[in-house]
Structure formats: C-alpha cells, structure tokens
Design goal:
two-stranded antiparallel sheet, mainly alpha, disordered C terminus, TSUP/Inactive_protease-like, 12 helices, transmembrane, transmembrane helix, 4 strands, two-stranded antiparallel ribbon, TM_pro_TauE-like
C-alpha cells in the first residue's frame, strides 16, 4: 500500500513504515533508548531526505518513549530528580542544536552534517559499548557478580552536590547537566533521543544503577524531543505528519513489547546486542557516504545554482 508523504515528497509503503516504527519501539522498550539513532538512518535508506527524517523522527521518539516510560513508572524505576537535571541541560542543548541546524540548512550542508554525525557517533559509541559489554560478561563469569561501578572519583569531588534517592547517589549536578546539554544538541541535529549517549554516560560516568537509568533516560527524552520537534516544525517546516503518524503507531505498540523482553534479559546481554546493532547501522551509513552517488551530474548541477 503506497502512500504519498507531502513534506518528504516521495511515495512509501505504509506497512514498511509501520514495521520500522514497531522495530524501533521494541528497541526503545528493551534498551531505554529513543531508537532514533537506528530509525533516522533507516529512513535515509528508504529515501527520506535527511532534514525531514531528523525532524519527523524526533516526533516519533516522543510517543515511543512516553509509552516506555509508563511501564517504568509502574516499576518505580524513574529518578525524577535526576531526570529534571538532565532535562534542563537537554532543553538548552536542543535550542543551540536547532540554531546550528538552521544555519547549515541555509548553507545547504545539513544533509552531509547529519550523515557524518551519525557515522562518527555510532562508530564511537558502538565500539565502546561492545568492548565494555564483553569485559562485563567476562568479569561476571569470573566473580559471579555484575560489573562494579563508581570508579570515577573526580566526578564525586565536584561542587553543587545533590541527593538522588531513587538512584542512591549523592553527587554534583554538573555531570548530568552537561550530559543533558550534549544530548539536547544531538536531538536537534540528529533527530535522536540521545539515549545511546545518555545511558552509557549515566551508568559509567555518574554511576547510576542500570534499572533506574532506562526509565530516567526515557523521561528526559520525551520533553527534549517534543521541544525539538516543535522547533523544527516552526522554523524549518520539515516535520512530515503522515510519516510521523505511521511511525508513531508502530512505535507505541513496539515499546510495550520491548519493555517486557528487556526485563527477561541480563543487562550485559542487552548492551552487547545494542552495540552490535549500532555498529551495523554505522557500517551501512559509512559505506553509503563513501560510495559515489549514482546521479553525479545532477548533484553537480544542483550545487551550481
């Protein structure tokens, strides 16, 4: 069933979009990531222009994250205080990211920026997570316990300390605030919830328990991506509602399934699976960037106008 997407200006199979939304929703529920870092490249692969994919995907993440966070609220695995610190940083970062995005769009360089950002970030994060997960599995086999955390003493020496009861932490608000800003910039430029940066940062840098990280990450993602979508819609006019609705329906159903699967698996297994997926998408994007475009001359002509 082909449908025409008015903003993206292409026809796409509706069931393909529903399926992609469902797949990313499952990942969102399992890993506590918005799933945008996989969905946005998948949209590039089926021919959606990067500027439209980024703005519309931010919209879909709001829904799948909201669906996922409800399940975590029931289990009391959301640290609202920590989430709010991350959120304040996230909104500042998102605003700065939109300014940069609009500037590059005016120069005609935004598609390249988006794709390059993906290759760099997915490559770095995927590799780090893969290595760390392997080490964690090895350590767990040796000692029979999960990996230990909180080795970063300098983090604990920073000022402006606050008690985060749900996470069992008493740390400075500076690291989560900075993580929030960084994630906000990524949300604006890459159309991602930033969970793939935030989840590792909260576990390894801040020392939060894995089970609290996922719900807290989703809570923050909802507001930052909603703000990003609003900014893109009002300044760029690149949010495709038809595309968003189809991804949204699939995403909400998928997130509920993913949350159930995630509970049954060990944290280390989840992380290694996520790392492999990240690296696979990164490889495909890098390959597409390095390959010569098929319409070389038409691209050259477009650049000359």
């Amino acid at each position: 069933m082909q449908i025409y997407l008015p903003i993206a200006e292409i026809s796409v199979n509706a069931f393909l979009l529903l399926g992609l939304g469902g797949l990313v929703g499952i990942l969102s529920g399992m890993f506590g990531v918005g799933g945008g870092f996989l969905m946005t490249p998948l949209l590039f692969f089926i021919g959606i222009p990067p500027a439209v994919a980024v703005a519309t995907e931010a919209n879909q993440i709001v829904a799948s994250s909201f669906s996922g966070v409800l399940a975590h609220f029931k289990r009391k695995t959301v640290d609202l205080k920590m989430g709010t610190v991350l959120l304040i940083g996230g909104l500042i970062g998102a605003y700065l990211g939109i300014l940069l995005f609009n500037y590059l769009k005016s120069l005609g360089q935004v598609d390249l920026l988006v794709k390059l950002s993906y290759v760099v970030f997915l490559g770095i994060i995927g590799s780090l997570m893969f290595v760390e997960s392997l080490n964690a599995i090895r350590r767990a086999k040796k000692t029979g316990t999960s990996a230990k955390r909180r080795k970063h003493n300098w983090i604990h020496n920073l000022p402006f300390k606050m008690k985060f009861r749900t996470s069992g932490l008493y740390i400075s608000v500076i690291p989560p605030f900075v993580v929030g800003i960084f994630v906000g910039v990524l949300a604006a430029i890459m159309g991602v919830g930033g969970g793939f940066v935030m989840v590792p940062a909260m576990i390894y840098l801040i020392g939060m328990p894995t089970k609290v990280v996922i719900g807290t990450s989703l809570y923050q993602i909802i507001f930052v991506t909603a703000f990003t979508t609003l900014m893109h819609a009002t300044t760029n006019f690149t949010v495709d509602i038809v595309l968003a609705v189809l991804l949204l329906v699939g995403g909400v159903i998928g997130a509920q399934i993913g949350t159930r699967i995630g509970v049954k698996m060990k944290a280390e297994q989840l992380r290694i699976l996520l790392a492999l997926m990240v690296l696979a998408v990164c490889g495909k994007l890098a390959f597409d960037l390095l390959m010569q475009p098929s319409e070389l001359y038409s691209l050259g002509a477009a650049g000359g106008h």
